[in-house]
Amino acid sequence: MKKNVLIIGAGGVAQVVAHKCAQNNDVLGDVHIASRTVEKCRKIVESVHEKKALKVDGTLAAHTLDALDTEAVKALIRSTGSQIVINVGSAFVNMSVLSACIDTGAAYLDTAIHEDPLKICEAPPWYANYEWKRREECARKGITAVLGAGFDPGVVNAYAALARDEYFDKIESVDIIDVNAGEHGRWFATNFDPEINFREFTGQVWSWQNRQWVSNQMFEVKKVWDLPVVGERTTYMTGHDEIHSLSKNLDVPHVRFWMGFGERYITVFTVLKNLGLLSEQPITTAEGQQVVPLKVVKAVLPDPSSLAPEYKGKTCIGDLVKGIKDGKEREVFIYNIADHEEAYKEVASQGISYTAGVPAAAAAILIARGDWDVKTMANVEELPPRPFLGLLDRMGLPTCIRDEQGERRLHFA
Amino acid sequence: MKKNVLIIGAGGVAQVVAHKCAQNNDVLGDVHIASRTVEKCRKIVESVHEKKALKVDGTLAAHTLDALDTEAVKALIRSTGSQIVINVGSAFVNMSVLSACIDTGAAYLDTAIHEDPLKICEAPPWYANYEWKRREECARKGITAVLGAGFDPGVVNAYAALARDEYFDKIESVDIIDVNAGEHGRWFATNFDPEINFREFTGQVWSWQNRQWVSNQMFEVKKVWDLPVVGERTTYMTGHDEIHSLSKNLDVPHVRFWMGFGERYITVFTVLKNLGLLSEQPITTAEGQQVVPLKVVKAVLPDPSSLAPEYKGKTCIGDLVKGIKDGKEREVFIYNIADHEEAYKEVASQGISYTAGVPAAAAAILIARGDWDVKTMANVEELPPRPFLGLLDRMGLPTCIRDEQGERRLHFA
């Protein structure tokens, strides 16, 4: 049993995590939120109070923190008595926060892979470049570190584990499909941190095919799917975190990721990329100023959390799994449908932040309860999926399936 | 009679001006080139020597100069003994350079209007915001200051003056059409300084219609023309310097400017503009760095002068003039066709720089000779067009006409 959570980060996902932790503070204990800009943490605290989200009276506090500074993270973990750290800060702080957890004995969890600011789309598997290098140390010291516990990666990894455990004897392929059929009404915006969003797509696209890493270009491989609720949608093969753990942890020949993109996104991406404005490498202006173009693009784009009030429509994210069960070929699609307006009503966030933040809070609850307090480093597919999916069902992210019997909601009693 | 020229600026246009001044140094005397980055001046000097462009033995020298610093400009004018200053530097330095000329008695000429870095598309007429405020002073002190002596503005103003003097009793409309039918082979590039290029189009489009200023949005008004040599071309109504003097100096109800744009330009412009990346106002990144987005866009785009070696195809720029002659309606199109490859062969520049730079050198020769040494400030349409067009004919920019008798080259004996 662990308690008291420290949330690192104060963006859209942190907002959702804070609301969900507050709603479950009878289990989680104190809730602390820390980021570089304490003002953003204070706004989240206010928002939680506005929604009267705290289940029981308790601590909810904002802190200033440079999460790249391991000693500062350690000091805050200790001073707040936090036993669980939910890292939903920038993708650049995973390793410094993980170090702080290892040194203090706190459990660690995050929702996205570590990145080096000056590198993109490194050699696969990505987890082996950073996180997995600390895996043995976590096991030796009994540190619980759950990697990639958002929706994708996260819930989709649990869907794959569920498919493996209950729907297949042998899996041939896992195609993860992520479609946002919502409309934010802006000319252009990304649904999460533009810097991280674009970094996902500016390098090569890694996929796992025939048990090998295959490299493609972004927008090179296109596939149209007919999906529940959101209907026919165009997606493109995309590099994504979960391929880099599922390829190792599941004995599966094909793991691919498909993301839905509209024409507008493709146009904007193509222009910015071809002009060199998505580069993570500094350039020098005629005036001699050193600037990273991608950080300028981030600065001019709408803050993703500002999209929430006007966001309408639904997301559909899931795993299309093909394989053999009882000697017969089968195909199941395990998925969730989330609604932007409902997310905003509940936690004042848009649906993309909601789908990423709720699982992180659920994972924290599972660590607090012990179900997932595994005293080692684990990706989500290595952990029991049922407690996670059962909790998500009650926390706002129900799991559905489409198989030979049609579409229906799954229940995890 | 004036002699010794100081060229301010070291971009693509300065390169052409330097070559053309060198080719005419028997008239112009010493040739000096100055810019913030002396290395760029030195490269131009080298290029002139490579082409053996100096007509007679003489001085050709490179200097470092901050052209915003009037005292520094004055000192350089004096130390070089320059009596003619050709300002082809950034659009932000006109007024500081003009001040230096007024104080030292040197003749001034430029190819584009003054701009304030933090303002775009100010109230019309643009010349009244800056240059014309010094007009009386120039007249009083006998300073020759020729404004806008590139191609457009510049040669197109002379075409309008020629039409007024020789082809019409009364002009109804002047439509200036600028089409670059060349191909540089890059995914995207601007043909001159991207910062100045985009600044032309991010604000409102001012045109002179029914003797009034009319405001439109960029890409709002489209017109397809069938032009000599380059054929059918799509253009858009655009704000441009020459409208702001011709509307005052010509007694004409309509003066409009039309620029040709391809689909790629429109897509890139639309994305950058809608995202806020063409803004001339500083923004702050998440890391707290103050940056002007437009300067970052400029920094990532190809240097326009780097396009020259691969540039192929032709430009067509001219004035479509409608009005009355001898009681009858008529329409003439006075124009030039320039060729990118020929420009590169002669002066190692692309055609856009060539069309802007050759007229500036021609204007300097006219000042040196006395034809245009008018001891006051003047826009090109206020000066005799025949000596200018005759000189241009011999310097590489022949004038053609399309009228009732078809298309033919004009001769200025």
Automatic annotation (TrEMBL), chains A, B:
<dbReference type="InterPro" id="IPR032095">
    <property type="entry name" value="Sacchrp_dh-like_C"/>
</dbReference>
<dbReference type="Pfam" id="PF16653">
    <property type="entry name" value="Sacchrp_dh_C"/>
</dbReference>
<feature type="domain" description="Saccharopine dehydrogenase NADP binding">
    <location>
        <begin position="5"/>
        <end position="146"/>
    </location>
</feature>
<protein>
    <submittedName>
        <fullName>Saccharopine dehydrogenase</fullName>
    </submittedName>
</protein>
<feature type="domain" description="Saccharopine dehydrogenase-like C-terminal">
    <location>
        <begin position="150"/>
        <end position="396"/>
    </location>
</feature>
<dbReference type="InterPro" id="IPR036291">
    <property type="entry name" value="NAD(P)-bd_dom_sf"/>
</dbReference>
<dbReference type="InterPro" id="IPR005097">
    <property type="entry name" value="Sacchrp_dh_NADP-bd"/>
</dbReference>
<dbReference type="Pfam" id="PF03435">
    <property type="entry name" value="Sacchrp_dh_NADP"/>
</dbReference>
